[in-house]
Design goal:
Elements: H1 15-46, H2 53-59, H3 62-83, H4 92-106, H5 110-113, H6 118-132, H7 138-159, H8 163-188
């Protein structure tokens, strides 16, 4: 089920509708992150593993793509407004509220600032995956590398405000690159018969 909707053909969404939809998507992703954290805690208590597929699908699929599409349109409206401000009108207060809404919904690091559980769930998933890497087979490790590269852009967005996290992530990234190189060497090494 898609967590965002698009207007009917020929029907353009208003700025207010796009702001509301972007905020709704953030709330929906945050609810999925909260559910993911609950799954991780429950699985941990039962000695099982949880995958948080709904949350991962939301941040790597249509849901976040819809959020980004709304934010792109809103930022374009904001840029047009700033470059060509309308003459003084009765809409001044309304436009100010629109600009504030755009910043709240789509501003820098909005995903981290406007959600309560997304960063924590993302970190928990990455921590669990990193702890399991040492025991994974070569084929599973290659799949894990693909996952990390897919989510790498979002991790940068989530961790942009924390310098210690960036250093830690850079160290992990370098470690992953080293492991990738070792895997490549193992793949390319002739096997004895």
């Amino acid at each position: 089920m898609a967590l965002w909707s698009s207007p009917l053909p020929g029907q353009e969404m208003t700025v207010e509708e796009r702001i509301a939809e972007a905020e709704r998507i953030l709330q929906a992703v945050d609810a999925q992150a909260e559910s993911c954290l609950a799954q991780l805690a429950e699985a941990s208590n039962a000695g099982q593993s949880a995958e948080c597929t709904d949350f991962l699908a939301a941040i790597d699929g249509e849901t976040l793509a819809g959020y980004l599409a709304h934010c792109d349109a809103l930022k374009q409206w904001r840029d047009d407004y700033v470059e060509n401000p309308p003459a003084m009108s009765m809409e001044g207060e309304r436009d100010l509220q629109r600009l504030i809404g755009i910043e709240r919904a789509c501003g820098e690091n909005a995903l981290r600032r406007r959600t309560s559980f997304v960063a924590e769930a993302f970190d928990a998933i990455n921590t669990r995956r990193a702890s399991r890497l040492s025991g994974l087979s070569l084929q599973r490790r290659l799949g894990e590398i693909e996952f990390q590269s897919t989510l790498g852009g979002w991790q940068n967005e989530l961790d942009a405000t924390n310098p210690n996290r960036r250093i830690h992530n850079e160290t992990l990234r370098q470690f992953d690159q080293l492991e990738e190189e070792l895997i490549r060497q193992q793949i390319n090494r002739p096997q004895p018969f």
